Amino acid sequence: MPLLTIVIGLILVLLGGGAYLSQPEDSASATALIPAFFGAPVLLSGLLALKAGVMRKIMMHLVMVFALLGVIAPLGRLIPSSIKNGFEFNAATGTMITMMVLSLILL
Asked: What is the pTM of this model?
């Protein structure tokens, strides 16, 4: 499980970094880094679980908290914006859906 956690954490960090770097320079928003903000603690917890035998259960439970938040947080943005403006698939919604699916796989 720690190896899967490390892989998904790394993918989330790369997803957030890629989303941020793909924005035009004049309108770059830090909210594009949200997957990286979730991926960094997941990655770190996976690395700690791999190295520290005693802390493995604690780290994996911490990862599950972040994975659950990684599923709920995009829904909290996608549902209201879809109700208000209708669902539109663009880079932002694609990033949120990808984050949600990766977190659901981890959960």
From this structure: 0.87
